[in-house]
């Protein structure tokens, strides 16, 4: 059970990014663990989704499990791979942005890294987090 203090701290952190109660409660119902995230991580994740991924708060509420992933170890490297694929034309902008981060590591590597590593040598570096993720200039599909 979540303490009242932790719950209120989480609510306030999400509200600072413009989320309404009507948006938050269904998201928390889907993924209650997102209330146990530290305020620092909430701020970091929300800024990443809103600025680098160019998404809206409603998208984050639709996929609250993404808030539980590691930004540095999972989300940024996978977004770097997607950015590389889109920028080189190997993948179009119709990709569903939030599907690749939720794939298992094995499936992600097979479907996106190994598949293109012979054509795009930097894809392994991107997956290892050695290529900086610049962000997506357009809103990609959810």
UniProtKB/TrEMBL annotation:
One Pfam family this sequence matches: mTERF
Superkingdom of origin: Eukaryota
InterPro entries tied to this protein: MTERF, MTERF_sf
Keywords from the UniProt entry: Transcription, Transcription regulation, Transcription termination, Transit peptide
GO biological process, one term: DNA-templated transcription termination
Keyword Transcription regulation tagged: yes
Transmembrane stretches, start-end: none
Gene Ontology molecular function terms on file: nucleic acid binding
Presence of keyword Transcription: yes
PANTHER family tied to this protein: CGI-12 PROTEIN-RELATED (PTHR13068), TRANSCRIPTION TERMINATION FACTOR MTERF2, CHLOROPLASTIC-LIKE ISOFORM X1 (PTHR13068:SF120)
Family: Belongs to the mTERF family.
Name the record gives this protein: Mitochodrial transcription termination factor
